[in-house]
Amino acid sequence: MGGVPSVPTDPTRRLQVIGAGFSRTGTVSMNMALEKLLDGPAMHGGTQILGREDAYLRLWSRVFDAKIKGDKELTLKLLREATAGFVAITDVPGNCFIPELQELYPEVVVIVVTRDKHKWFKSIEMIVDVSSPWWLRYFLAPVPGWRWLPYMIDYFTKVEGERLPGPLNAGKHKSDTLDVHNTWVKNHTPADKFHAVELKDGWAPLCRILNKPIPDEPFPRANDADAVAELSRRIFVQTLLVWAEDG
């Protein structure tokens, strides 16, 4: 979704920013901008989930299992392992662990993204449609890495569903989800660490928040809709090939 996933090489680097914008609020563009400003690897959830090795996805599954079972000590231990070396995180799964990430990294800054909620919902409908078929877990089962995608979707739905107004297609609630999410993040973040931006404003708001000079280049603008469509086609074709080889 966001190109090639970043893989940290220095595990001592610490998380500086949680890009807490809900999915489809320009999380890929935000991720690219944070990598530039912080000069380090940022974790965009969708890119990591669809581009990293099987063991890393298994690790995130264990993080979710620990959280859902209420084992805080194990959750923090595994979450620290999953985020070691990253300087920023955007989108899910990070959005499912905002209080825990703030506990692990007390100095972290939390930034949500605002946009027209009705336009946002039209955008996210595409993700819901392509990621929710009942047969997906069986279809992807023989493919390392991608086989975890349906389970991650289940985890996201369970954890985020506890604080959102209802399923993304739940009638009147559908366009309220973005506002509810941003309010929830604000209420669970110290006032001096919480910020809201609109990506249409470019570099200036982020640079002001992070006390960084404005780069002498355009703000990154990723066409995530086209990337999702292309990735969906690639996953389908490559998975069919795996099935054919196994057959």
TrEMBL record:
<dbReference type="InterPro" id="IPR027417">
    <property type="entry name" value="P-loop_NTPase"/>
</dbReference>
<protein>
    <recommendedName>
        <fullName>P-loop containing nucleoside triphosphate hydrolase protein</fullName>
    </recommendedName>
</protein>
<dbReference type="Pfam" id="PF17784">
    <property type="entry name" value="Sulfotransfer_4"/>
</dbReference>
<dbReference type="InterPro" id="IPR040632">
    <property type="entry name" value="Sulfotransfer_4"/>
</dbReference>
